[in-house]
Amino acid sequence: MKFLVFSLFLLLPLVSAQTYRWGPCPSPRVQPNFDLKQYLGTWYEIEKLPASFERGKCIEANYALRGDGTIRVLNTQTYKGKVTPIEGTAVVPDLKEPAKLGVSFSYFSPYSAYWVLSTDYATGAVVYSCTDILKLFHVEFAWILGRSRFLTVATVDHARQLLQQENIDITNLKATDQSGCQNI
Q1: Quick one: how far is CA 78 from the chain centroid?
Q2: Is the pLDDT of residue 94 over 90?
């Protein structure tokens, strides 16, 4: 028991800027008939659950298909006046569930869930990610994305409702500052 408490104590700094909850990850429904090719391209972050790796403004992601069938993920943000990019790889582990992708930003880290819950491909998307920790609690991320830097209030409200319907707590959902951004 001491080891378990000590392990949890060590893990808390890793999740302090994240959203974590007791119990296992929920299993939300994903976009039916997901079409990866239509999803590719640039998406702008409209709202998110807090993430330690996303502290800046003007956050965007660009998805492009590579020749080997993997997806190049290029995320950029402006933080303290500097544009900071990070490149990763996304894969579709199970072709029967193409909306359940895995994403990694390091050769040394496993793929993390990147589940597209809903998208119309042209305006907005809702994405969810969750990782169980020791089967005691989970760390979760959620993003409302747009093809433009700003979405209508009605579109954002609809995305928030979708997350709530899937038992994802949106209490800590925060708007991403997309003002004064230049094309990166």
Answers
A1: 18
A2: yes
